[in-house]
């Protein structure tokens, strides 16, 4: 008897577990991806065709243009506004039977693919992107072939749409074939490009460009720079450089090409004019020029103006002290200054006049 009870309990428990699992599977939202502009049908779980259901989207009644056919909701000409969480409820008790997360998007188109080697001769990288948004998750599959064998592809840790490939050999005459396939829930599309090793070599721009005026030389600027840090073997694979410069007051550039040198003296600068300077790099034999470096600004040496001599306190005239103001309110008439001879003549005039009268 005890065994029978135990068996019945196990059967009941198993049934409960199965029912709970089925209900959980119905309540967990499932993803449904549909093409933009199409008519979309959503099925409410596994209900029969004659079941009566109602639908909600994001917790509210469905207001978009639609129709109901038993347990199915049909939306017409869907767009991004139809995205959302749809739930269906079985009438008459309103028990939720299914939940669907609807995603509207488009199938991918052929991706744009470019490949470049800025670490020659170590390897190259390829990058890709979609010209048009798909609005739903899209992944990319990359296959690289060389001399009829597949090469290892390493995804970039920073750029999600970039991968790195090592050169299996240097100076290879066999072309590389890169195929990138865009894949999402609505379809896939591929792009394949083929190239030779030498055609994709392009260094990064030179770094730490500086321009310094030269003392007592109002028409010269000393320019120096460093080769890009990403270029791995500057000794065996040297770079040449292209310098351009112009004064800010003019639009026309002047150019100088340099072989295996990381400095140059500009000798024809306009005195006192600010200059803008940039440098590009290229492998001496293959590939293309890099992008221009970050622009630097510099002005040739300008002669220091003569210092302005400050006037000291002793250079100023001393202040003249005025006499006390007379007590009389009437303006005082100033006497004209007289010399010593005039004062003597004035003193002896009466005496001489008396003697002259005596002898007459």
UniProtKB/TrEMBL annotation:
Which segments carry the region annotation Disordered? 305-335
Start and end residues of each Fibronectin type-III domain: 107-204, 205-305
Q: Which GO terms describe its cellular component?
A: external side of plasma membrane; receptor complex
**A Pfam short name:** FN3_IL27B_N
Q: Where is the signal peptide?
A: 1-21
What are the alphabetically sorted keywords of the record? Cell membrane, Disulfide bond, Glycoprotein, GPI-anchor, Immunoglobulin domain, Lipoprotein, Membrane, Receptor, Repeat, Signal
Single Gene Ontology MF annotation:
interleukin-11 binding
Q: Which domain of life is it from?
A: Eukaryota
Recorded topology in the membrane = Lipid-anchor; GPI-anchor
Q: Which Gene3D superfamilies match?
A: Immunoglobulins
- GO terms, biological process: positive regulation of axon regeneration; positive regulation of cell population proliferation
Q: Where in the cell is it found?
A: Cell membrane
Which residue intervals are annotated with compositional bias (Polar residues) in the record?
308-331
Which part of the chain is the Ig-like domain? 37-88
Q: Which InterPro entries match?
A: FN3_dom (IPR003961), FN3_IL27B_N (IPR056621), FN3_sf (IPR036116), Hematopoietin_rcpt_L_F3_CS (IPR003530), Ig-like_dom (IPR007110), Ig-like_dom_sf (IPR036179), Ig-like_fold (IPR013783), Ig_sub (IPR003599)
Q: What SUPFAM superfamilies does the record point to?
A: Fibronectin type III, Immunoglobulin
**Which protein is depicted?**
Ciliary neurotrophic factor receptor subunit alpha
Which species is this record about?
A: Seriola lalandi dorsalis
Q: Taxonomic classification, please?
A: Eukaryota, Metazoa, Chordata, Craniata, Vertebrata
